[in-house]
Amino acid sequence: MPYKARDVSVILMILRVLNKRMKLSEDEHWYYLNQEKGFRGEIQFDILTEKLKRDCYILNDLQLESSTSSFQLDSTLIFQETCSLFDVKNYEGEYIYDAEYFKTIGGRDIQNPLDQLKRSKLLLNNLLQSLGSKLTIEAYVIFINPQFTLYQTPPDLPIILPTQLDAFIRKLDQKPSRLNQSHKNLADKLISLHQTVPPKIQVPNYSYEAMKKGLTCCKCDSFSVTIVGKKLICGECGCEELVTVSVMRNVEEFKLLFPEQKITTNVIHEWCGVVDSRKRISRVLRKNLKITGLGQWAFYE
Ligand SMILES: [Zn+2]
Question: Rounded to two decimals, what is the model's pTM?
């Protein structure tokens, strides 16, 4: 069990809603798919670390700050003597190693992830020192996708290729490790420093007007839904959901995209589209959120 579980990042949550409700440009769509792919890769690595039998604290996805520089760690494992950090990459295809860029035969080159890793290692080291921890930091780039090859990789680099992954995890599991209260304190401290909203959210520009309005299916994201009694029924996959649940799910999407906007019956009525009655929206909001103000000036929190 990870000590800190991985959540879907705010960036990815926003991108998912944008992809559903507006037309992303080709580059934006590519960026979105890469974020999804990166997340899938991280989950795959989580499955491997969760199998470790050694005593260790597994901290998935930390967004930290050290001397005003922020850095993100995909996966951090605290052992008795070491703090191991892992940058997980879900690239696939054939690449040729180069100190600056990994080159492909045809497609897009990628920046050598060791630069980023060095930076994260240094910043984490500063942070641990400021917290009085004496753990040694080990840092690795993990290439998780079995369809990834990197030709001409110098063997002494902290790069773990898919073919080396099993042996690497086994070695990790042989680290002598006995944890005490100081390790737990450190794990708790790092979690308390985790910032839920990354400093710069990199998402495409969007506006309320450009968004497609309407309730969507909770399973397949389709807008082809109809209301029958208390239920929302999807015309694509047949999935059924209570209208109340569905409205609140879409309120959450609205809040994610427009955190500054006030939640009012009118706004949500337009946002949800398919619900005819404003009274029904109002009932759902009143039941699930706290109302402030009266009549036409009322809004929900
Ligand atoms: Zn559906």
Answer: 0.87
